[in-house]
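QA checklist item 7 of 12: single-chain prediction sanity check.
[x] sequence parsed
[x] length recorded as 160
[x] structure emitted
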Amino acid sequence: MGWLHNEGVNGCGSLLSKWNEDAFSYNSHMMGKGFIAVFGIHLKTNCSCVMVNVYAACTMNDKKIHWEELSSVKLASQEKVWCFCGDFNVVRSRSERKGIREGIDYSSEIVGFNSFIDANFLLDLPIVGKNYTWFKSNGSAKSRIDKVLVFKEWFVKDDI
C-alpha cells in the first residue's frame, strides 16, 4: 500500500490518499490546501493518470480559490486521464440539498462549481443507491457534496 498525508491546517482538512501498489505505480504528487494530486501509472492498462483527493473549504471565497488552484494544476499537466474525488462541500443543483437553510440562495455556489466542472471538461459520475452523501445526525438535512469527477478520457481507457 502506498500513501500520502496532507495534514491540513491545525488538523482541519486533513487528507489521506492510499493506493494499491500492485495496481498503481506512483510517480509524483502535488499538495495544496484541500487536495492531494497523485500522478502515476495504472498498471493493468499502462495508462498515465492523476487521482486528486479533495476536501473543499466551506466559504464561497475559499471554494473559488480552491477551484482555481485545481484548474491550474490540471492545466499545467500534460496528463489526459484525471479523476477528482472527495468532499467538494458544494452541490450542483438545488435537488442535491434538502433541509439545509432552505431560504439561503446557493445559486452563485452552484453556478461557480458547474463552471469549474465545465471548464475542465469533467463528468460528474452518478452515485448508486442513496441520493445524498452527507446527512445531519438527526436526519433533518442532507446533501450530495461528495463527488467523483472524471475527465472524458477516463472512458476511452479500457479497464481503469
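[x] summary fact logged: The mean pLDDT is 88.
[ ] second reviewer sign-off
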